[in-house]
Amino acid sequence: MTRTLDIFPLTKAAFAPFGDVIEADPATVRLINGGTTERFHALSSAEAAGDEARVIINLFRGQPRAFPYAVEMMERHPLGSQCFVPLNDRQFLVIVSEDEDGRPGTPRVFLARGDQGVNYRRNVWHYPLMTLDQPSDFLVVDRDGPGNNLVEFFFDTPFIIGAPTL
Ligand SMILES: NC(=O)N[C@@H](O)C(=O)O
Ligand code: NI
What we know:
Elements: E1 3-5, E2 7-9, H1 12-15, E3 19-22, E4 29-32, E5 37-40, E6 54-62, E7 69-76, E8 82-86, E9 92-97, E10 99-100, E11 103-104, E12 108-112, E13 117-120, E14 125-126, E15 130-131, E16 136-144, E17 151-161
Parallel strand pairs: 1-17, 2-12
Antiparallel strand pairs: 3-13, 4-5, 6-16, 7-17, 8-13, 8-16, 9-12, 9-14, 9-15, 10-11
């Protein structure tokens, strides 16, 4: 039995159980630098747990995924958050799940605009970076340090995502 997943627009409200949407939210704006800059303040915060842990800033260059796509697994980072912000103004897919007794529930798929990023809260089930159409760069803020920061769960039957309409 094929289990297909619908794709929904990424919104703060829909994503709230999983983390924060990084976007130019007028409710957060502060005019700084003599009025020359708008600061969209404290859109989210990075978490890095454990001794000697640190928050690091990375670049990810994601290769485009082919569709229909089989979501065969989900992962979570027990020691830190993970933030993805697109640098090429290109849409990407965000796939998250609620936790159900230690395993991911049915994934929820969101289409992020090219001016939206996400910060997965620590321990939130998600699928690794899902780039669309062409290789795309992302600024990624996550945790480095000792200890295992990756837990993966593989589904008995993958969920299928059809090609997103961009
Ligand atoms: N492995 C890695 O650094 N990235 C993944 O955690 C991911 O969510 O893309
Ligand atoms: Ni991850």
